[in-house]
Known about the structure:
By secondary structure, the protein is an all-alpha fold. It has eight helices and no strands. The protein has a domain at about 75-140. Helices cover about 50% and strands about 0% of the residues. Helix 3 packs antiparallel against helix 4 (about 95-100). The longest helix is centred in the middle third of the chain and has 16 residues, at about 55-70.
Amino acid sequence: MVEGEEGPPKTEGSRRDIKMLPPVVEALRDQRKATLGKSDYVFLNRYERPVTPGPLGKHAWKKVLKKIGITYRALMQKRHTFATLMLDGFATPGWVVKMMGHTSLKMIYEHYYSYIKNYQSEDGQKFMGRVYNPIMKEPEKTTPNLPHQEKKEISSMPNSL
């Protein structure tokens, strides 16, 4: 819905399935309970009509930001916040691209990369902890699964074998 008019998404790439994160699913289910049977839409205004971005941004959004002490920013900028938080939390850029509906990684690197603190301080430790170190660990020396007497005999053998 754009400016009160329903229609297809603006680009073919905008038609996509999005795997919602658990908090989003929970919030939508809670909201749906409040509007079930009143409309086909999940978000309704006080007149039980679909919420549209214009009035939502003009009235509720500005008030909420002011109340919590955040400088005003357009409602649509929440998308950018989402992308930055996901990337900063080590989500893969390809997953973020898919969630955002972008067609390439170019948008990620041009618009979000400089805001991601974890990427600015990345020094290879994540790779070392997850990939390199587990591969480089020596296998533990184990004694074959033998009866107790045979283990004793093996452990007393000279190391030159």
